[in-house]
Each structure stands twice: as C-alpha cells, then as structure tokens.
Amino acid sequence: MEPSFDFEKPILEIERMIDKLKKLGNQDDDDHAARIAELEEQCLEQKKKIYSNLTPWQTVQIARHPKRPVLQDYIQSIFTDFVELHGDRLYGDDRALIGGFATIGKKPVMLVGQNKGKNIEENLERNFAMSNPEGYRKALRLMRLAEQFELPVVTLIDTPAAYPGKEAEERGQAEAIAKNLAEMARLETPIVTVVLGEGGSGGAIGIGVADVVMMLSYSIYSVIPPEGCAAILWRDAAKAPEAAESLKLTAQSLLDLGVTDEIIDEPLGGAHHDPATMTAAVKKAVLKHLRHLKGTSGSKLVSKRFEKYSKIGEFYK
After folding, report:
1. What pTM did the predictor assign?
2. What share of the chain has pLDDT > 90, as a percent?
C-alpha cells in the first residue's frame, strides 16, 4: 500500500511488517507462516475498523485520491462502441466534459461525464474536470440528441466544481447550468446518474438531474467544496474538515436525506484498490436501473422526476 493519508498509517505499518517478514524467507517454517497470517488478519480488521468509521473529511480525501478510477477508466472497462461527439455549436469543445454514443451491456446509451485526468498533463488539458459553459451546452445538446433517438442518458459525475474563471462567467456559466437543470427536468428519456468521486456544486448538478442518482460509497456530493464553504463561513480554508461535517456530503447522509437513491459499495479502502471490481459494480447498477426504466413513457418520466426533486428539502412540523 502506498502512503496516502494520516488515518491510513496504522494499516501501512502492518503492511510494512508483512512485507519485511515475507522478504526474510522461511516460508516453509510454520511459525513464520503463522505470524504472517496473523498480521494479515490484523491488517484486514484494521482496514474494516478505519474505513467503516470515516469522518466526512476523510471521505473527501478518498474521493479525491489521485489513483481513483476516472471517466476514461469506466469508458474502457464497461462501455463499448464509444463515439465521442464534440462541440456545443456555439463556442467550442470543452475537454473537461465529454460525451457521445456508447453501449453498456447490449444497451445503446448517450454517455456524458466529467473528464478528470490521471496525471498533471491530462488534468491541465481537461481543466481538472471543471467545465466552462460550452461544456454544459455540449452536454445538453447530446442529451437532446438522445431524446430524439429515444436513447437513455447515463451521466458520470466527477468534478470539484464548474470553472469559476472570469471568461466562464462572461460566456454565461450560471445561465448554462441553470438551463441544463430546467431542460433535464423535462427530458422525455430515462436518465441515470452516478457520482464517481467528487460531485461539487453546480458543476455536478449541471449533469445530475436524473431519474436515478447513485453514489459510490466513498464519493461526495455537495453544494460547495468544503474549502470554499470554510472560506466563506470562517474566512479560513483550514476549517474544511468542520465544513465537510456540516455539508452532509457523504453517500449515506445524502441517501438518508432523499437526495440520492442508491449507494454502490466500493472495495475496502476505496475504488483505487480494485478498479476492476468497482467498474463492474457500476455497470451492474446502471444496467439494473436502465432495465427498470425501460418502457416508461416520457410524460411519466417527467412527472416522476418532478415529484422526486420537489420532495428534496421537505420538512415536517
């Protein structure tokens, strides 16, 4: 295991002891083998203890892990026949958000997702998955195309936020996101969304108005990144852990609040520990809901979607 976060240090120490014992040899010695087995059992128990009691801020850290599977990993693992479509027909082609025709299982869909990179060069090219207005307009163009061809839409969310730069605001960032919310709400085709890692602010919800919203168990979904919230409330980004606690941004909190519909369990320690298992679980969950939504009329989809989002924020005396 590579060193990552402070809370993982107890696991790392045990794994180092196991590696040291294995390098010493004597694998045929019963006592030596028993000691390794004992440490492996301790390591597993420590992992279960730590990852089942994560704080919201620790969950944020895992959601941002640099080796966490990104959109391109899912495209390569669970989608076939992906044909990327470019441009918003107004300004340009945003590399932070991509989409196109694809097949999952044997089901043709329109795939739209935020495009994080796996290294600094890719992240710079893709603006760290922070879309400009043309990205959201491209996404809406593709979703309308899906409706025209009677294809379901699958959106994969993984962004810290929409790009907050001056040029993005000048080109209508807020209007582009708001229009997506309104148009997705009345799109007469099934929409299934999965939050893969970070689901930050309007950048996430701009492709997140769906019939079914799922989250990976260590992903986050919030109105604002914790650092931004802390900077506004306390004028101190160092208070991000306190902000994360208040934002209720974890998968379980959002399921309890009725904002999302299902949690897709990650491998112990996070998706980056077993990407193949993670991508297979996402495929299974998406196909399940596509089957469930199949055959539902467009008007009923819109009606149920309206009802679903109208309930968010309800309170009782």
Report:
1. 0.91
2. 77
